Amino acid sequence: MKFSSPISEQGALGFVVVLCILLLRLSGTKRRAKLPPGPPGIIFFGNLFQLSPRIWLKFTSWKTYGSVVYLGVAGRSIIILNNAKAAVDLLDRRASLYSDRPQNIVASELMGGSLLFAFIHYGDTWRRMRRAAEEGLRKTIAHRFHAIQLREAIFLTHSLLVNPGSWDSHLRRTAASVILSMVYDTPAVLSEEDPKITRINDFVERIVRAAYPGAYLVEYFTWMRYLPTWSAKWKRDALEQHRIHDAMFQGLFNEVRDRIAQDDQSSSFCADLLEKKDRHGLNERESAWAAGMLYIGGAETTSGALAWFIFAMLSFPEVQRRAQKELDAIIGRSRMPTFADYDSLPYMRALIKEVLRWAPIAPLGVPHRLAEDDYYDGHLIPQGSIVITNMWAINRDPQVYGDNADMFEPNRHLDEDSQLGHHAFGFGRRICVGRHVANDSLFIDCANILWALSIEPFRDDNGVPIIPGLDESIDAGIVVRPPMFRCSFTPRFASATEIVANTKELVV
Prior knowledge:
Blueprint: H1 6-32, H2 55-61, E1 68-73, E2 76-81, H3 84-92, H4 95-98, H5 105-111, H6 124-137, H7 146-162, H8 167-184, H9 195-210, H10 233-261, H11 269-275, H12 277-280, H13 284-315, H14 317-330, H15 346-358, E3 368-369, E4 374-376, E5 379-381, E6 386-389, H16 391-395, H17 398-401, H18 435-452, E7 453-459, E8 465-466, E9 474-476, E10 479-481, E11 487-491, H19 496-507
Parallel strand pairs: 2-6
Antiparallel strand pairs: 1-2, 3-6, 4-5, 7-8, 7-11, 9-10
GO molecular function, one term: monooxygenase activity
Membrane topology: Single-pass membrane protein
Cofactor: heme
């Protein structure tokens, strides 16, 4: 027998009505919540075909839509942050929501085996690897690498004196040798053709290109990841790169472990990982890739920043002269600069800050991913949005840096009460873990170069100086370098060459 209750039926009907009203209200709220403004796109593809090379310049032009710009790309939401306030409000103050990384199929998953902690998702593996890197490179112990950095600065200055035509190769060798010594306690690498450098630099170049937004269609049409390797050369190549470099990073890590087993008192990042393996909870493969990530994150960016330094000295010779005047006043001409001079060289420190502000080496940083729906300035930022910080626009914002924001002017950093600084190292929990070491390397390299050398433009057959244009910068993926250019490095005073050569002999 079937019984029915008018009360229960009415209650059920009421529940359904209430539920429908709530759902309608929620969906209505979503509809009413406006997405941030942005440029119009086309059906299905959205703004995909507007993601051109040197896209940070186009993003900057879209500041007319506001500080937060919305793009739709093949059904995916992309948010561009065009000023520091928006970046701080979201990436710093709401870090728990914005610390994830978007899926990066080629660079992170295939080439990196989901072990490059700068690119992997926000989770336990990332926390363990990031914590180990932060402890090994934190500001309070960064000074332990000063001897390595000073040695390499002296070698770099000597190389520029004896073979100035290969200046870019010297910058790359120096940055690579510093990182290798810091991470693996290797001897100084004296040639840019050393296999240790060429192998890893090849991988670095591939990674930074693969990580650039839009570099591979599979990042937007993710079904392509399931294509068989025989039909997808990009996938086959990425997996082969992982196989080669997985063996390389583990081999370098094992060399440190074997030296320690033979009672070698190694002082390096890898030695710290081995000593504190229980504390960090990393297995040996994770440790090997954590170490490898420091090389990937440090070598290309440091050499690129040094190249922008050379570029700026050519473009703004008055800055070069003022820095050299400070070096002469504080150090004189009988010895080369050391880290002991750091506090006495405020203009030199300001110059380094300005290099990083004026030409941020990664003008789009590395994208973040939003974990859940968020609202900012009355606009909905949908869950899963890829959030890109336009470092170029942020570091050249005239509302922050004044009407001369496009000029290279270290004086803007000399006011003791000024909090200008720069944002070249990123925001939030994903801020560059090696920023303190990078600042130290840039300081000691640039100070030694300017102490010993005059950097002058190359002149054509008619004696006219050739200054490269800023708009010719090379888009090398997430890392951007100035165009290749010729310049002259000449000793500043008669005894400079001899002093550099003698100092080099003391640190070999």
